Amino acid sequence: MNKTLLDVTARIRARSAAPRERYLDLIERLAGRQRGVQRLGCANVAHAVAAMPANDKLRIVAEKAPHLGIVTAYNDMLSAHQPYEDYPAIIRDEVHRLGATAQVAGGVPAMCDGVTQGTPGMELSLFSRDTIAMGTAVALSHDVFDAALLLGICDKIVPGLLIGALHFGHLPCVFVPAGPMSSGLSNNDKAKVRELYAQGKVGRDELLQAESQAYHGAGTCTFYGTANSNQMLLEAMGLHVPGAAFVHPHDGLREALTRHAVRQVLEIIPQRRYTPIGRMVDERCIVNAMAALLATGGSTNHLIHWVAVARSAGILIDWSDFSDLSAVVPLLSRVYPNGSADVNQFQAAGGPGFVIRELLGAGLMHGDVLTSVADQGLSAFARLPHRAEDGSVTWTDIAAKSNDEAVVRTAAAPFSPTGGLKLLAGNLGRAVIKVSAVPEDRHSIEAPARIFESQEAMQAAFKAGELERDVVVVVRFQGPQANGMPELHKLTPPLAVLQGKGFKVALVTDGRMSGASGKVPAAIHVSPEALAGGPLARLRDGDLVRVCANSGELTALVPAAEWDARPLARITDDAIEENGAGLGRELFAGMRRNVASAEEGAITWL
């Protein structure tokens, strides 16, 4: 095992000793109770089974058959979640074959960041994660289930479902994905059209045509953003059916995997090989997820989400842990925006199983963890699933060599000896930067700052030709307290245009950029945020700013005495009111007031 990996794991374990002990004690108390239908009053049980077929009532009450709860994020607004419409029927059919029962315990909201990008609705996106967690808790609060199947894929949905499930840590849980859409217009070609549109060289019709060719059917978007990073991390945590992440929604194997999820979760219920999710997700499991994220250049959103996930299991992690692991975990894959391939090409090249196999072999993952595969460690997730003639699932070993070394490589010959995410720190606060797609000559930028308080203001300055120079674009008052920390994807095309003209360009923001910041160096999630009195509020137009991934610096090159004496810039009351009004934003005012910093997971429940 790699020494740094062991050291990081050990310090997380030590740091988390007290909250983890409290969490495990709670699991033990809940697990020690009678099953729900034996424990609850007769009226409670009657309500719970009232709408079920008579045979199912008999199985639950008289035969004491296992009873599964389904929590689904189905809607047909999200292309990735549209296939879930038929999953409850498939699951019910399979549980009946196996002598068990299942109910849809509840649904949770699932918004599409692609639809709300650049609109006020995007300001609800981050907080939707904790809303989903609460919805999961409401669904499972009926407390009659022996285990749960969790149906969700996209950006905030998987972290929200996982956070909610961990607050019912005594339950065995398996996540059930639905897979990516087929490849359409390449991500590189899509990005080129976006840049041409930003320059005014093509119109809205051409842009809409390109976007519609890229996003064209059921399944997740095919770039390696937060949604697909979610799936990689769930594989690395052992919470899927092995190899389920990137099988197409309409592939015959997909239904077989969904049916196998029922079999898999029934193997780990209390009556059999009891493996509750709260015990599975320990500090080793969290470190495995971090290593998988770094090895694949995954979404920066997970430096927020997995802090919150870990805390839900009584585990305390921070960005220093990610940074130290990044120094030893090699970059094993290049998927857009870190390369030209999409997730379908990633899957064809070897996919998550190849990456997990390589990291295990290099001592960069803990193999001896509990997983949803009864009595098997993480090595079960380093295999490839196949649909047998009888409709069951079988697995084979993954090829020793990559099927495409432009997409996936071995740990012995990686794309880079270090991971794709780094910690930055200095007198502007702490931030993260994703460098896996950034050209090496852009890893260190030093230029005058130009400050904005919205991405719309930055776009207006770009269109007016005011940014045609070396510049560090600063977009502040975009943190969770200010406006819910929306993703600022509309900044990427103009910044890429400026960089393409040869200017030295970087972005600094207390907002988010997800997994799509791409080739422009971006210091994001700056903490503390400007509205909370963070030093980003001291910055002024023209200040020289250094953003250096090599040295880990995020610094305003201003004399210390002058810097300390500067008053903090303040957002206007009108802007605060505007950020909190309309399109449902008023309902999230309490979350904005109570939210923790980005490095603390932007959690709202403590």
From TrEMBL:
Cofactor field: [4Fe-4S] cluster
Gene Ontology biological process terms in this record: D-gluconate metabolic process; Entner-Doudoroff pathway through 6-phosphogluconate
Residues covered by the Dihydroxy-acid/6-phosphogluconate dehydratase N-terminal domain: 66-372
Pathway named in the protein's UniProt entry: Carbohydrate metabolism; Entner-Doudoroff pathway
Job description of the protein: Catalyzes the dehydration of 6-phospho-D-gluconate to 2-dehydro-3-deoxy-6-phospho-D-gluconate.
Family: Belongs to the IlvD/Edd family.
Protein name: Phosphogluconate dehydratase
